[in-house]
Structure formats: structure tokens, C-alpha cells
């Protein structure tokens, strides 16, 4: 049976101190930049890719990829999870599980 949820290598943090945070990860830790835009920077760490996003601060969020974000969201809510934030245009959905862990569910690339 194919897995419905599969983790990506992405971990994201959001901070209003974006310039300081990105400078820290690039200069102090010396992480190579893998993505750069006005709102988001990605850093290659080896085991995962750390993304730093501008905005209201939240702690680290890891990601699960699914074939159908809406179906996964319904399944998780039915199992006692709560929606923290969602953006249908991405599409993505931050979910808090019954144990307090927040993670993103995003759309998996189509199978070849």
C-alpha cells in the first residue's frame, strides 16, 4: 500500500527579524543559500533544508507531502487535529496534532 503521508526535507520558521535571522544562518552558521526571494530564504543544512520566512514568528514546522491536501486535511481534522493556518493558493495547510506538534501538509509531486 502506498503511503498517504511522506515527509519532505523542508523545515520552515517564520520571523519578523528576517534580515537578522537570514544573516545568522548564512554568516554565523555558514549554511549555503539554496533559495532567495524577498519573503523567503532557504539554507541547505545537509539533512534538511531550512526555510526562513518573513512574518509573525512561529517555531519550526516540518512538512508532510500528500497527493490530496483537502482529503488529508479532512482526515486529520476528523482524527482530532486543528487547522492553524492555511493557504489554498499554495496549497498548504498548517495542522496541530492532538499532541501539540504543528506541521504543514503540502501537495506531493505527481507520480511518474
From TrEMBL:
Pfam families (alphabetical): Glyoxalase_6 (PF18029)
Source organism per UniProt: Rhodanobacter panaciterrae
Protein name: Glyoxalase-like domain-containing protein
Residue ranges of domain Glyoxalase-like in the record: 11-105
